[in-house]
Specification:
Elements: H1 2-19, E1 21-28, E2 31-33, E3 41-42, E4 44-48, E5 51-56, H2 58-64, E6 65-72, E7 77-80, E8 82-87, H3 89-95, E9 99-100, H4 107-120, E10 126-131, H5 145-150, E11 156-160, E12 165-168, H6 170-176, E13 187-192, E14 195-202, H7 205-209, H8 217-233, E15 236-244, H9 246-257, E16 264-270, H10 273-282, E17 285-286, E18 290-298, H11 328-339, E19 344-349, H12 352-365, E20 375-378, E21 395-398, H13 400-406, H14 410-414, H15 425-432, E22 436-437, H16 448-457, H17 477-483, H18 486-491, E23 509-512, E24 529-534, E25 537-538
Parallel strand pairs: 1-6, 2-7, 8-15, 9-10, 10-11, 15-16, 16-18, 18-19, 19-20, 20-21, 21-22
Antiparallel strand pairs: 1-4, 2-3, 4-5, 7-23, 11-12, 12-14, 13-14, 17-18, 23-24, 24-25
């Protein structure tokens, strides 16, 4: 009789298991921040066909679902897959193939790295990226003199960290046809008493770009795969690439369709005539992994190279206001053209003058239009009289690490009063109701944990300044996580498919080694993404 009872129990248990609903994956015993409207917590979820089909307690999920893949998270923290709302994904990959100048502490170190690279990887045209004179003891732009001596016959072009200046040697200038009297609007060819220094700011850089050898298809594919590997390692599942041409977008689509690229890409097309003619006529392009429905427009340059356009002169260069990279009349024409399409306009604006012009243009051309979600990329320095424009559905797309990178010299550029309207993340959030957060990599590092730390601590990695930089504009951890997930998704018109762990959305999620919402603030930069899932598959 006892054996019969045991057999009956086994049969009943097997029947219960048989009656459970099949899922592809079940995750239990987790510390889940769903980032839904209530910022609710959960312990478990089930995934089928790449989407969440249930979210709840471990007991409830176990009772209803079974799967071949059951993950016991052992209390680890899970959030929706992180979204970088402004980066240069393709450029990050290309950067892995050139001289890395990030972190150089002097021009002499730049020269050493270029020489070492050329010895190990001989090139007919040497490209480098990442120098920043603000990190050097002598904080002046370098000149080409030493490059000319070291490389008299080999063209060299070294891009500043922000992507808004080149240092080019004479061989590169000659190849590009740049002479002492060459003039290009929308930037500067920097000169001294001896002629061209080799420094080109903003639009004159295009002359160098025109003679840099085009990467092969194999090099482009490698760049995209290298960039994906770096991003997935940090828990990123979607990247907003701020400025791509049609050929690169089509290559990304091809790789995604063939299963060679897993990360999701929100592509902003570069505002070239060719791109605009093709995409505005064709309309948005949307697959599960690619979304092409925005135009990246450059307003002004960068603050670090004094290319950002200011209403009043630079505090450290009297009479200099910066320059608009795209003429104002062209920005207005672009805005009108984009406004009658389905596309979003995302305009780079750093200085208070550029921001004011872009905001007023948006306000005028969008009058009477609903839910366009146009963005200001960077929104870095805002005059107090212009913040209210963000109440009208304009989304600030901001990069918290810019504040902690620039804080050492921002007041020198802007002056004591004007700097108070810079990196004003909390004020922007209060006006706009949301902020989309990104890194701007490779201008900054890829790590979203540095973004998180800069937003909630407003300090550098050495804990400076002790009380934080302009702490009236600090973001809470919840605001920051929303800005890196659901608000970024909303800014991409993708909030119904990603950005939170909810039924029906893509099963994009990240598992961490620490709880980023409760860990001591100084431990945030060292958080690691242990696993990154895109569509329910670990990548």
């Amino acid at each position: 009789m006892k054996k019969l009872g045991l057999l009956l129990i086994v049969v009943l248990l097997a029947s219960c298991e048989y009656l459970k609903e099949e899922a592809d994956m079940v995750v239990v015993n987790a510390n889940i921040y769903t980032v839904d409207d209530d910022f609710a917590k959960a312990e478990a979820f089930a995934v089928r066909d790449g989407k969440f089909i249930a979210v709840g307690s471990s007991e409830d999920i176990r009772d209803v679902y079974t799967a071949d893949q059951i993950v016991d998270a052992d209390g680890r923290t899970i959030t929706p897959g992180l979204i970088d709302a402004h980066c240069h994904f393709y450029r990050l990959g290309l950067k892995q193939q050139v001289v890395d100048l990030v972190g150089t502490k002097s021009y002499a170190e730049v020269l050493r790295r270029v020489q070492e690279f050329q010895r190990e990887n001989p090139k007919d045209f040497i490209i480098g990226s990442g120098w920043d004179q603000n990190d050097w003891e002598v904080k002046e732009f370098p000149t080409k003199k030493e490059l000319d001596e070291l490389f008299p016959d080999t063209p060299v072009a070294l891009e500043r960290v922000d992507g808004h200046a080149y240092l080019a040697n004479q061989a590169a200038l000659d190849k590009a046809g740049i002479k002492w009297n060459t003039k290009v609007p929308g930037g500067e060819i920097v000169k001294n008493q001896f002629g061209n220094t080799g420094v080109l700011i903003d639009n004159p850089m295009l002359l160098i770009d025109s003679v840099i050898p085009t990467p092969s298809v194999a090099a482009k594919v490698k760049a995209l795969k290298d960039a994906e590997r770096l991003c997935l390692n940090y828990g990123l599942t979607t990247v907003n690439d701020a400025g791509l041409d049609r050929s690169t977008i089509e290559l990304i689509d091809s790789l995604q369709q063939n299963g060679e690229l897993s990360i999701r890409v929100y592509a902003m097309i570069s505002s070239t005539p060719e791109n605009l003619e093709h995409y505005l006529y064709q309309g948005p392009v949307k697959t599960e992994k690619l979304n092409v429905r925005s135009v990246k427009v450059y307003g002004d340059g960068a603050l670090g190279s004094r290319g950002a356009t200011l209403k009043k002169p630079y505090a450290d260069k009297w009479g200099h206001h910066g320059a608009m990279v795209t003429p104002t009349e062209e920005i207005v024409d672009l805005a009108r053209r984009i406004a009658i399409s389905e596309y979003q306009m995302n305009t780079h604006a750093i200085g208070d003058s550029a921001n004011a012009f872009v905001l007023r243009t948006y306000d005028k051309v969008l009058e009477g239009k609903q839910d366009r979600r146009w963005k200001v990329e960077h929104a870095q320095v805002i005059d107090s009289m212009d913040f209210d424009y963000f109440k009208n559905g304009i989304i600030p797309s901001i990069q918290p690490t810019h504040a902690t990178s620039d804080m050492y010299w921002a007041e020198e550029r802007l002056g004591e009063e004007r700097v108070k309207g810079a990196y004003a993340f909390k004020k922007l959030l209060d006006k706009a109701g949301m902020v989309a957060l990104g890194t701007d990599f490779p201008v900054e590092q890829v790590s979203p944990f540095l973004t998180f730390y800069a937003a909630v601590a407003r300090k550098d990695l050495d804990g400076y300044p002790e009380k934080g930089f302009q702490m009236e504009d600090v973001l809470t951890r919840e605001e920051t996580l929303r800005g890196m997930t659901i608000w970024a998704a909303y800014s991409n018109f993708e909030e119904k498919e990603k950005g939170s762990i909810e039924v029906g959305k893509f099963a994009d999620f990240t598992i961490y080694n620490k709880d980023l919402m409760t860990v001591p603030v100084d431990e945030i930069p060292s958080i690691m993404a242990e696993q990154t899932f895109v569509g329910g598959v670990v990548r």
